[in-house]
# Entry
Amino acid sequence: MHLYSYVVARDYGFAPNPFGGVCTLATCKPEIRQRADVGDWVAGLTSAADRATLGFVYIMKVDEVLTYDAYWNDARFQLKKPSRRGSVKQLFGDNIYHQSPTGVWHQADSHHSLDGGGANPRNIANDTRSHGVLVGRRFAYWGSAAIDVPQEFLNFNGHSIRLNRGYRSKFPDEFIRAFVSWFESLDAQGFIAPPFMWQRQRSTWARPQT
# Structure
């Protein structure tokens, strides 16, 4: 069992996507999506730009790892395909990639597309460095109501979940056991509060490069 921590630099409800009773990480962070396996844990931390004190945007246990094509075709996840004419949740759908028989990547009009809906080559190149989509049913997504990181995990015998960029995964077993035990003690489950960026004017939302 491994624990991966990283900073959710732009919390739009896109990466991760916590809707529909399932938390998915299908874009961004290709290194984590490449390495994480069933039974591992992923913790998304708040950015310094969004919150003065370090908090958790979400925590999830990985229940499945799907390929992009499997995710795209799976009947369970059709509601996670984006729609510009649907609800705000649908606007940030993360089920956006599939390949043609010749291996060409197709990107649905989405948060990672260019203005106007065209495919964004830079985001395609970054996202598809890993074909893995992480799926978690045991999760808590706090979003704009992020909870503080306990001091215990900021200095746990010299190990800290805190980081500035990239991701962290080299935690000792005792750190991971303590972390999972703490999380389970919260009895938190599912979508709890809207994404941080939804507090801003909708007109200021953009499709950021990642």
Q: What stands out?
A: Residues 3-150+170-200 form one domain. The radius of gyration is 17 Å.
